[in-house]
Amino acid sequence: MARSNNSNQLLVPGAQQALEQMKYEIAQEFGVKLGADTTSRANGSVGGEITKRLVAMAQQQLGGTQQTF
C-alpha cells in the first residue's frame, strides 16, 4: 500500500474526519470507487470537487456569494 507523503497539517482538530467523510460522499455522488485501482483522473475529480466546495463554504462564511450543491 502506498505511503502518504503529504506534509500539509490541518489547523482545526477533527477536520481530518470531516474531510474524509466529504471525500467519500463526493466519490459516491460521482460514482467513483476511491483507491489505488482507480485512475488518477477519477481520484483527482473528487479532490477538485472537495476544493471547490471548501472554497464555496469559506466564501459563504466570509459573506460572499451563496452557492448550493
What does this molecule look like?
- With 69 residues, the protein is mainly α.
- It has a domain at 15-61.
- It is 55% helix and 0% strand.
- Helix 1 crosses helix 2.
- The mean pLDDT is 87.
Helical element count?
2
> What radius of gyration results from the CA coordinates?
14 Å
Shape type:
globular
Helix content: 55-70%
β content, as a range?
under 5%
Mean pLDDT, all residues? 87
Spatial separation of the terminal alpha carbons: 33 Å
Major beta-sheet overview: none
| Low-pLDDT stretches | none
Structural class: mainly alpha
Series of secondary-structure elements, N-terminal to C-terminal: HH
- How many β strands by DSSP? 0
Q: Could you give a quick summary of the protein structure above?
A:
Helices cover 55% and strands 0% of the residues. By secondary structure, the chain is mainly α.
Q: Which key phrases capture this entry?
A:
0% strand, 2 helices, 69 residues, 55% helix, mainly alpha, globular
Please specify the SSE layout and strand pairing.
Layout lengths: L14 H16 L9 H22 L8
Helix pairs in contact: 1-2
GO molecular function, one term: double-stranded DNA binding
Organism: Parageobacillus caldoxylosilyticus NBRC 107762
Protein name: Putative small acid-soluble spore protein
